[in-house]
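Lab notebook page, bench 4
Experiment: in silico fold of construct C2
Operator: M.H.
Input chain length: 101 residues
Purpose: comparison with the prior construct
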Amino acid sequence: MAQNKDLHGGTEIVFADGVKRVIRPLTIRQLRKFMKVANQLKTDDGEMSDEDIDKMVEAAGIALAKIEPEIAEDPEALEDILDLRCFGELMNAAMGGDPNQ
């Protein structure tokens, strides 16, 4: 049975901690969880609340769950490896896009 990593090589992203991680598109199961969280983000007005940041961290955890499960399950550890640049790249790569385009 083909796995996601067999179908798509993934996108290498340098995180805020300086570590390069290869991000692959979410599976449908992960996408369901991800979309529930992403739909709760309220950043249309250009302002970001603590609740929005918590949702961003939760979404990042879903995207990293199969790559680094120990970090994905630890919100504080996630906050230490994320910045806005790599968060945007992570979300794009997790959704199957190429953050370098």
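Observations: Residues 28 and 34 are 10 Å apart (CA to CA). The longest strand covers residues 11-14.
Next step: discuss at group meeting.
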